[in-house]
Design brief:
single chain; 9 strands; four-stranded antiparallel β-sheet; three-stranded mixed β-sheet; 3 domains; Butyryl-Coa Dehydrogenase, subunit A, domain 1; Butyryl-CoA Dehydrogenase, subunit A, domain 2
């Protein structure tokens, strides 16, 4: 396995790092100020549109898409360090049009969308003119097991009718959100992997109601937010079904593979920013006559954090390399492994950085509380740790079980 950056990747790394330092990080405070003082609770800060225009003009746009027709033409291994760089800032992914859930929705439409769906929904997403949301998780059932899903998507003639309630629909609060992708049960009697459908639903469709926006540790994460959404006899044309009825599970698996690893790449960036803040604090803060770095076990904490981040990065790169060479199905164990490891490492390092900062670590003067929330949520998003561990164990045991069966 070769994790060395290709010449193309190195050029992008240099450009993205410079853009982050020159434009994105200096704009974070202004973005926050505009967000809190805008005319609407869920307004798009003008500085974001300015940054997007600059990134697009610089050719730093849709970096996550591996084909050059729609994106930058980077492999997963080459995109990984770019996602890590953007993970250091909450506003960076949107600046480069690489923010979830739009990334996953764009990947779905690129791979499975009809020409009409691509023209109406994919094109403006690729251009950054609109935003979108993904409606899969449900409040009444354990949604990590898709067979529990209660929301329905029933075909009636040339329409499909949607009913149910979804929540944690990230992005639905954004003022530029124009559609959601809804996953529902179409045929309960079909094979378990052929029961569901994915449907494009305009946000203004009659019967679609955003019931509330859900706070995360007290924060609403505007302007994107996470919504609880009800669908009551929502009727859309059958042409809005992606790839046809019954293919929802197939699409979900294809969507979640890249999405999970993108989250992990950004989680490494979260950990790196927290580590940087922790080291600066450890050297600049003095207590009991010494810098914090030389007190108690703080040296060990810093060393262990450094090693944990580097290990997580290597596992992420291994998963990315396998996705490039054997596909998502062949990399299932590695994707699940890093989905457990990267958020846990990020959460640990952020928590240690908070501790090193004392009272300053738990207020909004620093980004640590937001970083902690992001890492903690990621241990649930796109499948909880327990589900991924179960898959890793299942795949690890498979050859041993086969050998035992053969010896009987």
């Amino acid at each position: 396995m070769d994790f060395a950056h290709s010449p193309k990747a190195r050029r992008f790394i240099e450009r993205v790092a410079a853009f982050m330092a020159d434009h994105v990080v200096p704009a974070e405070a202004e973005h926050r100020r505009q967000l809190k003082t805008g005319a609407l609770p869920w307004n798009q800060p003008p500085v974001m549109e300015e940054l997007k225009a600059k990134a697009k003009a610089a050719g730093l746009w849709n970096l996550f898409l591996p084909d050059e027709e729609h994106g930058a033409g980077l492999s997963n291994v080459d995109y990984a360090p770019l996602a890590e760089l953007t993970g250091r800032s909450f506003i960076a992914p949107e600046v480069f049009n690489c923010n979830a859930p739009d990334t996953g929705n764009m990947e779905v439409l690129v791979q499975y969308g009809s020409p009409e769906q691509k023209e109406r929904w994919l094109a403006p997403l690729l251009e950054g003119r609109i935003r979108s949301a993904f409606c899969m998780t449900e409040p009444e059932v354990a949604s990590s097991d898709a067979t529990n899903m209660r929301a329905t998507a029933i075909v009636e003639g040339d329409e499909i009718v949607l009913n149910g309630r979804k929540w944690w629909s990230t992005g639905i609060g954004h003022p530029h959100c124009r559609f959601v992708i809804f996953m529902g049960l179409t045929d309960a009697q079909a094979h378990k992997h052929r029961r569901h459908s994915m449907v494009i639903v305009p946000l203004d469709a009659p019967g679609l109601v955003i019931e509330r926006m859900l706070p995360v540790f007290g924060a609403l994460h505007e302007p994107h937010g996470h919504g609880e959404v009800s669908f009551t006899n929502v009727r859309v044309p059958l042409a809005n079904v992606i790839a046809g009825p019954g293919r929802g599970f197939e699409i979900a698996q294809g969507r979640l593979g890249p999405g999970r690893i993108h989250h992990c790449m950004r989680a490494i960036g979260v950990a790196e920013r927290a580590f940087e803040l922790m080291c600066q604090r450890a050297l600049s803060r003095t207590a009991f006559g010494k810098p914090l770095a030389h007190l108690g076990g703080n040296g060990d904490i810093i060393a262990n954090a450094r090693m944990a981040i580097d290990q997580a990065r290597l596992l992420t790169l291994k998963a990315a390399w396998m996705m490039d060479h054997v596909g998502v199905k062949g990399a299932m164990s590695e994707i699940s492994q890093i989905k457990v490891v990267a958020p846990s490492v990020a959460q640990m390092v952020v928590d240690q950085a908070i501790q090193m900062h004392g009272g300053a670590g738990v207020c909004d003067d620093l980004p640590l509380t937001e970083l902690f929330a992001a890492a903690r949520v990621l241990r649930l998003a796109d499948g909880p740790d327990e589900v991924h561990r179960a898959l890793v164990a299942k795949l690890a045991l498979k050859p041993y079980a086969a050998a035992m069966d053969a010896s009987r």
